[in-house]
Amino acid sequence: MKKTSTRLADGRELIYYDSHDDTVRDAVDRRPLDPTVTTSEVRRDPLLGDSVAIASHRQGRTYHPPANECPLCPSQGDRLSEIPDSSYDVVVFENRFPSLAGDSGRCEVVCFTSDHDSSFADLTEEQAGLVLDAWTDRTAELSNLPAVEQVFCFENRGAEIGVTLGHPHGQIYAYPFTTPRTALMLRSLAAHKEATGGANLFDEVVARELADGSRVVLASEHWIAFVPYAAHWPYEVHLYPRRRVPDLLGLDEAARTEFPQVYLELLRRFDRIFGEGEPATPYIAAWHQAPFGALEEFEGVNRDDFALHLELFTIRRTSGKLKFLAGSESGMGVFINDIQPESAAQRLREVASS
Q1: Is pLDDT of 72 > 90?
Q2: What percent of the chain clears pLDDT 90, i.e. is strictly above it?
Q3: In angstroms, rounded to a whole number, what is the distance separating the alpha carbons of residues 61 and 251?
Q4: Torsion of the alpha carbons at 246, 91, 116 and 74, rounded to the nearest 10
Q5: Where are the alpha helices (DSSP H) in the chain?
Q6: Nearest residue to 172 via CA among 112, 109, 127
Q7: 81 near 62, Cβ under 8 Å?
Q8: Is-contact 45 53, C-beta < 8 A?
Q9: Which of the listed residues 45, 169, 227, 254 has the most CB atoms within 10 Å of its CB?
Q10: Distance between CA 351 and CA 100 in Å, rounded?
């Protein structure tokens, strides 16, 4: 992998990740951009104890542009985009309309491919491996920023999810705090460790799914994918490396090499859940990594107790119908799932590649 860092016309950082070491990236951003102005602010809710990012400047962000005006396609002639070069493998750049900025963290965009009409599932294993390299490198770099406590790599795919740019891409949020979902995991981890005299809850969850087998979707030498026992979403898969590590940096070469094959297979199965002729399945793919900040409030737990994993889920529950977060989910945080997890796992096994 070759990494080339440059600056856009308004001062934001842009990084090319290339498969070939001899690739030259010297294109200049020719757009007459004003300096980026953000109003990001993090406010803490005194009752719930969580944090909310206030980012009013995002109201003016790019919204469903036509394909020939896509800001994530390479620049061509006089059509200038966020990517100055005329081609790229993988690109990461600072978001022009970030939810988090400065002392409130950082937001980045990850472009998986220059092909506008593609998707992550269409990537080759080499391309998917390069994205994994980019995620890992950005996790390392962002974790060194003074304001950052947790790094979150994710992809929102599909208009139903709320995606406003059709080009295949994901994002990275570098939070100045430990996110509420991660904090819940850490509290459960700490309580279980104390109650059992040191047992790791993540290890037990994975072992239990392997022993049961009814919710296992895919098992390879270095990865295990399963529908969780208490799945929140109609079709939801959790992907774990068999060797527990706290973050992407901890993956060994064998797991990194096998990941593209396993992950691409999962994504392709997701697109086959609802049968032939159905539109592409909308999904969220979310990497859960251990925070880089102090964990004193989670007594007895350290970073190495956390288990890196990816959660992949769709809000489509059946053909033409979406799972909306209504009163119980949005109002009280109590999910009601219309699909039995064992049935979801069975369906995901049925649509395996031949």
Answers
A1: yes
A2: 92
A3: 36
A4: 170
A5: 125-143, 180-196, 201-212, 253-270, 332, 341-350
A6: 109
A7: no
A8: no
A9: 227
A10: 39
* Cα 348 from Cα 333, distance rounded (Å): 27
What CA–CA distance (Å, rounded) separates 286 from 156? Answer: 9
CB atoms within 10 A of CB 44: 10
In the predicted model, is pLDDT for residue 60 greater than 80?
A: no
Strands (E), 205-342: 216-219, 223-226, 235-241, 283-288, 309-314, 316-318, 321-322
C-alpha to C-alpha distance for 266 and 237, rounded to whole angstroms: 9
| 235-241 β-sheet, strand order | 2-7, 13-18, 90-94, 106-111, 169-175, 150-157, 283-288, 309-314, 235-241, 223-226, 216-219
CA distance 340 to 227: 10
Residues listed for the chain:
354
3-state secondary structure of 241: strand
Of residues 201, 222, 219, 200, the one with CA closest to residue 211: 219
Mean of per-residue pLDDT scores for the chain: 95
The residue from 167, 169, 192, 309 that is catalytic is 169
Active site (annotated) includes residue 288: no
Please say if the pLDDT value at position 61 is more than 70.
Answer: no
* CA–CA gap between residue 73 and residue 185 (Å, rounded): 38
Residue 28 has which token pair?
A: 């200049």
Looking up tokens 């009601």 gives 336
For range 205-211, the mean pLDDT? 98
**219, 232, 138, 280 alpha-carbon torsion, rounded to 10°:** 80
Answer left, alpha or beta for residue 181, where phi above 0 means left and psi between -120 and 50 means alpha.
Answer: alpha
Tokens of 73: 């396609």
User: What tokens appear for 105 in the block?
Assistant: 């963290």
- CA-CA distances (angstroms) from residue 349 to 96, 258, 264? 40, 19, 14
Predicted structure pTM score: 0.96
How many Å is the Cα radius of gyration of the chain? Answer: 20
> Which tokens sit at 69?
């005006």
Reference 312, options 154, 97, 114, 78; nearest CA is: 154
